[in-house]
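The aim of this short unit is practical: by the end, you should be able to scan a pair of folded records and say something sensible about each. We start with the first protein, listed as its amino acid sequence and then its structure tokens.
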Amino acid sequence: MRWLALFVLVVGLFLWALFREPQVDVANLLWGDNPAPWERVDGVFYPNRAVPMRVESAPGFRTVQDCRDWAERAARRAPSPTSSTFECQVGFIRSVGVLKEYRRTLH
């Protein structure tokens, strides 16, 4: 009976790793909106939210708060701070063409 349970566990873990993304699942479960120890936070600042193609970006923050502090400083430099916005993107997963996929996107 123990061998059957072990076999089911191994097959289950194999299928999880094959069809899911274990690193993303673990990070979502244990760290939520915060970066896991192996993740970084990328900041994207939009000086004018009406023109989303014009952006400033800064990769590699260790915390979401560091990203928000950077975005706040960038907003002070913007021509119209009230029309600006930002995103802090946690846990880069993959690039799909020119787009980047992240585990979480926070404002």
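Turning to the second protein, read its sequence before its tokens, just as you did above.
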Amino acid sequence: MSQTNNEPCLHCGEKMSTKIFISILLVGACGIDTIGQDQTPLKIHVTGKSANQLRLSIAGGAGLHRLQQKETLASPDWKDLTGITTKTNFDVASNASMAFMQAQAAPQNDLLIFTNSNSLLDRGRFTFRHDTLGSEQFWGGALKLHEAISGTNHGGVGPGVSPKTALAVGLKVDVDALPQSLKTALAAGQVDLDDPASTLALLQLDSVVGVKGMFDSNQKLVSLGIQCALCHSTVDNSFAGGIGHRLDGWPNRDLNVGAIVNLSPDVSVLTNALEVDESTVRTVLQSWGPGKFDAELILDGKAFRPDGKSAATLLPAAFGLAGVNLSTYTGWGSVTHWNGFVANLEMHGQGTFWDPRLNDTNTFPLAAKHGYANVRPANDLITSKLAALHYYQLSIPAPKPPPSSFDAVAASRGAALFQGKAQCATCHVPPLYTEPGWNMHTPEEIGIDDFQSSRSPDKRYRTTPLSGLFARTKGGFYHDGRFATLAEVVNHYDSHKNLGLTAAEVNDLVEFLKSL
């Protein structure tokens, strides 16, 4: 099909005849002509971007294509201007030499990969944000946390959990899950934030990040499950404190996991697993504080460090992990290993998990006793989700800090120090900012104690990726937050490695780290 119209030339303004087919475009110094073949679904649209540039926009097809050109139609070969891409807009000089252009759909196997990629991304996002993975059998069935949230007035126990209390222990609300009427009422102060009924309403809207309430036909909360997003997402506070758009991958350093679990009316499942009394369990839970969790506690029963401080570690970021080999503070395994570990043993979902290292009775006496090395439920609700979850997490980029949050000039000097005198890049290799390969070090190499590393299979610490540091400053640095500031981290290495850094150089390095 074609059509002809007399429109002004985008270059010179003269009337020209434009014969439009579909996919082949003739671009010249003083005119554009599209001619083509009807069998392709791809089209190229042309608009004037500026006095010197034209914008070619590819439309149609599956969204994966390449742009090609040749000088004459008689020429047998098309030359690729781009590789296979999802990019749809391309700018060309308006005074370019005469050439024919076409958009060509990607080959079938590339389209298959592209379609699979999109599917994995969508399914992984859903799992990360919304799938409880069967964890309600623990959080609701065993801990009965839903009863504490509901309170006596709504069929539960105790005073209930109000929105103010929920926000105070670090739970977040997804503003995009709220109807406009509720947002208007919240903004006008017409919602009682001291009433547990308001918390139940938020759970019914599926708006509490990382928490899923199960309601019966009478709208009574009858169980509760958790999702990956509970610990590894926060919100941007764009609506109010604790209420905003989701920020997946950001560690929720406000979340007081121990305080939340301690709300439960029945912690017998934990007293049995840890082989201690209820008072001890509740003391341990209250020792963690905001932004921390002890993933190894159920494996070895070590609740406190030798110095008497809690053994809990900071909730890690789940962004910027593409290309990173081992994903936790003390190694353990890849992102997908840790997903399986956490989904089964920490979230207490229902799935298959295999890690024979947990049979080590010296390092993991509780894990070995309770059979955590080989978990095989009758109904696996986790394994089929792991591939997409893994893909989604690897797709989450590390966020960029606001330009106003660091001194760019000092950061530039710090970058040179990072690569040179300070020796940081030896381990934090740009642009991954961890080592490609087996990114692990002994406690002696990094100058700290071995308490946390000794709770892991390899007895080492991982080189933590540094991108997006600004999003995880709350709670301090290193696995346990032992260094309150980045300057303390730099000074530690200056002393440990005898680097001889000046105060000004330390400051420049800090500004560079803040810029990542």
